[in-house]
Structure formats: structure tokens, C-alpha cells
Amino acid sequence: MFSAPLEVMLERIATRETNPFGKTLDERERIIKDTAEVEPLLRASATMEIDTRQPLADTVRQLRDLIGQVKTGKSAACE
């Protein structure tokens, strides 16, 4: 699963220019509520976590490594 703290997600949503969702107070409250309800379910079933606070190149490298492990049948280590 890809993850970032809620504060980071809200900051990214507030500053992005490509999607208007999340700009209103109601939408931000929905994001907070949905995150609180859904994130624990995702974490319970995830076998790997990629923290997207790291530089983009590192996130891409981790994803590429994971894809390589799947293709070769190797087990992915949780991070």
C-alpha cells in the first residue's frame, strides 16, 4: 500500500492544481472520515507499505523492486 500521514495528504490536496476535489471544508472532512475508516482495513491486508513522503525517485524504485519480485516469484519484504 502507498501511505502518507493525513496531514501530508491534506497539504498535497490543498496545493494541487489538477483536481478540485478536497478544496472545500465538507470534502476535507469526508477525506478525514474516509481515511479513518479505510486505512485500517488497507493496513490489515497489506503485505508491503511504501511511504510516499520520500523523494519520488525512491518511491518509484521501491515500486519497481516490488514488481521485479513479483515477476521473479520472490517474496516482498515489508517496509
Characterise the protein shown here:
With 79 residues, this protein is mostly helical. It has two domains: 1-46; 49-79, no CATH class. Helices cover 61% and strands 5% of the residues. It has three helices and two strands, in the order βααβα. The longest helix has 21 residues, at 25-45. It is globular. It starts with a strand and ends in a 7-residue tail after the last helix. 0% of the residues are buried. The model has no long low-confidence stretch (mean pLDDT 91).
Can you give me a brief rundown of this structure?
With 79 residues, the protein is mainly alpha-helical.
Summary tags:
79 residues; two-stranded parallel ribbon; globular; Shikimate kinase
Q: Please state how the strands of the largest beta sheet are arranged side by side.
A: 1-2
- Helix tally? 3
- In total, the number of domains comes to 2
Mean pLDDT: 91
Biggest sheet features? 2 strands, parallel
Helix-and-strand structural type:
mainly alpha
Termini Cα gap: 10 Å
As residue ranges, the low-confidence spans are: none
- Roughly how much helix do the residues carry, as a percent range? 55-70%
| Series of H and E elements | EHHEH
Radius of gyration over C-alpha positions, nearest whole angstrom:
15 Å
Beta-strand content:
5-15%
Principal-axes shape call = globular
User: How many β-strand stretches?
Assistant: 2
